[in-house]
Amino acid sequence: MAESEFEARRRAGQEWLLSCTPHPASTTRAWNAERLAPICGGTHWRAVEAPLMRSVDAMPRVGNRLGPVLVNVAAGRAWWLVSPDVGDLLDDVRQLDVMPADWPLLCPPVMYPIGERVWLERPDGSGRLTDPVLLGAAFGPGGLRLPAEAFG
Length: 152
Hints:
Layout: H1 5-19, H2 24-32, E1 37-40, E2 46-51, H3 52-62, E3 69-72, E4 77-82, E5 97-98, E6 104-107, E7 117-121, H4 132-139
Antiparallel strand pairs: 1-6, 2-4, 2-5, 3-4, 3-7
Helix pairs in contact: 3-4
């Protein structure tokens, strides 16, 4: 039976996530044992921590420029993957905390959740990340308001 496009994207997303770690074999072993695997974004991405419910509300505001979003349902937290050169762009957004590049994000596989952690927006293999400017705007007062020029 041929793999569906959905399954192919999930598999590509998992391969991309594994490419972000220097130890893909140990990450795969952790997942096979139903354990979360610590992955540091490093040069691939930075994690931005936010409240879960505000993140769910912000996702449609970011729209089709949305990158991977990992959540911990029990803790009420979400982690948005943004470009590694985020710098101080989000320093003024009170609800967002940019984690250090070497901070280990405890990740389940893209294919299925482990415990209370699940990819709300899965990596799709393209390397697409959430634009930090759009993320900040979506969490700012009044939500995202882009000028018409932003859409070409």
